[in-house]
Specification:
Blueprint (H helix, E strand, L loop, with lengths): L3 E5 L10 E5 L4 E5 L5 H10 L16 H14 L1
Antiparallel strand pairs: 1-2, 2-3
Length: about 80
């Protein structure tokens, strides 16, 4: 698997999460972020039940530009 690093939350000081990658082979965007609290997880489950094989992460608005770049990179790769 080859993940192409797109960016990390500019407020992390260069370590830990959140971060974003693009997987051109699988045509997926990979997010690393904070696990949701129970209230958030329950609210999300109201719209889309969460199976064991999936997860929810929280990313800050300040990462919007990094996420847009990942989407642009993914569109170029497809």
């Amino acid at each position: 698997m080859v993940l192409r690093f797109v960016g990390i939350d500019p407020n992390t000081g260069g370590g830990n999460c959140p971060a974003v990658w693009v997987d051109d082979e699988k045509q997926e965007i990979v997010f690393q972020g904070w696990k949701p609290d129970e209230v958030t997880a329950e609210r999300c489950a109201q719209d889309s039940p969460l199976p064991e094989t999936e997860g929810i992460v929280r990313l800050p608005y300040r990462m919007a530009e990094i996420i847009r770049k990942a989407l642009d990179d993914a569109a170029e790769g497809s």
